[in-house]
Amino acid sequence: MRRESKPKLKLLIVDDEPDNLDLLYRTFRRDYDVIRAESAIEALKVLDEQGEVAIIISDQRMPEMLGTEFLSRTAERFPDTIRIVLTGYTDVEDLVDAINSGKVFKYITKPWKPQQLEVVVRQAAETYCILKQRTADLRRALRRESSVNAIMTAIRESLDYQNMLQTIVETIGITFDASCCLLHPVEDDHLRSHSAIYCADEIEHSECDCDRQSELVQQVLLHRSPQLKSDHPPHLVLPLTYQQELLAILSLHRTIEQPMWSAEDIDLIGVVSEQAALAISQARLYRRTQQQAEQIRAELAVARQIQTNLLRQTLPSLEKLKVQACCHPAREVGGDFFEVYYHPQGDLWLAVGDVSGKGVPAALFMASAISVLRRELSQEVPPEPDQVMRNLNSILSDDLMGTNCFITMVLARYTPSTNQLVYANAGHIYPLVWSKQTIEADSEPTYLKVRGVPLGILPDWKAIAGSLTLKDGEIFLLTSDGITEATVQPDKALSRSIDSAGAMLRQTGLWKLLRQTGERLDLKQLLAQIQAHNAIQEDDQTILSLEVL
Question: Is pTM beyond 0.90 here?
Answer without folding.
Answer: no
